[in-house]
Specification:
Number of strands: 13
Number of domains: 2
Structural class: alpha/beta
Strand order of the largest sheet: 2-1-3-13-4
Largest sheet: 5 strands, mixed
Radius of gyration: 21 Å
Strand content: 5-15%
Shape: elongated
CATH superfamily of the largest domain: Periplasmic binding protein-like II
Helix content: 25-40%
Order of helices and strands: HEHEHEHHEEEHEHEHEEEEHHEHHHH
CATH architecture of the largest domain: 3-Layer(aba) Sandwich
Length: 430
Amino acid sequence: MLGFSRKTFLLSVCAAAALLTGAAASSQAATIVYGGGSSLAAPVYGLMFNIYTASLNPSASYSYTSDGSGAGQRGFLGNAPSNHGLPAGTTIAFGASDATLSSSQISTYATAQKPTTGPLIQIPTFGTAISIPFNLTTAGQTTNGAVVFTDDQLCGIFSGKITDYSALTGIAATGTAPTGPIKVVVRSDNSGTTFLLTQHLAAVCNSGNSSITFSAVQGMATLFPGGTPGVTNGTLPSNFTPASGSGGVQAAVLATDGAIGYLSPDYTQIAPVNSGSSSFPVVAGVTNQHNATTYLPSSANTRSALGTPAAPSTATDLKDPTKYVPAVADPSVGYPIVGFTTWEIAQCYADANTGNAIKGFLSGLYSNPALLFNLNQAGFSPVPSQLTRAITRNLLSNTGTGAGSLNIDVQNPAVCQSAGASGTGTYAGR
């Protein structure tokens, strides 16, 4: 099982245990499910894997490599264990990413992997805000929401157009208005966190408030022109500092007076499990331009922003891996910078236990009180119920309307050869 040293998350395990009923006794795990990707999601995935294995399904454990969303996509799409530093022959059962796959990635998978694994499945695991952490200790802003940014101001800061706090008016909710250079910390690696920030900036920035044109495309994004799409940023302004992974951004913001960056809630003090810890940065409020209301990146404000997206319903859409993860670039209410963390999985696995372990964990993630409790404690939001119903009925079971003829669920015996004694399908499985 994947372990984490963060005491706050271990405390949350104890709180979650009280919510579990009918827990099975722990035993030696027979199946190890390998995956990797999003560093944004790594701490909470590690926590939930441990809870799920210890209390709900001791016959499975999960090995997760936190190396960024791009690495998660590449590792899964090519079934490439070396991408995660794992031995040759290791099956990469899932990839975790905060950016949706591009049409070319899906097309390449269909050609190279589908003949063995069956169709690609891409589903959301939870909703997340992209918070704006800051370090303005010298100016006296040391609490969540002590400073507030508008979209125009964020466009100026993250494009390099605004480089000094004195150019920003009205941002100090408490304390003295900050002055001096703005030191921007950005991800240097192939980052889904960058994708979600850029997706919002692309929707709200223009030539009047930004010095560049932001472009978020499916697959991945770079903040600056001139970089390799999905790999590196271009030439950064002189007041920008690149850092690797969410942990790198967190450390750089904490170490640099005048710094701001972007992180998921679990790396900041906004998450309840981290409140009051000096090891995590505080975050700014962001004003939603549609209702002129300022929000913090809490679980509740993320849930408001995600709203009630329509789930796929037609046979064509239910088979389409792009239809289960709606883009939420500029929501009308709630915290304005939000999106989904996704899993990419195969329909068929050569080891049926692996497929069943994936189905079991995802089903629990959508419905088990302990796992939902921990999502909220980490500052994340559960996936809206409209989507989880469609996913559960059609991809994790075969009970949706018309699903008997679609057979699109994981380890379906009419499709997957390895789905038990009745498995007579076309696909041998990953």
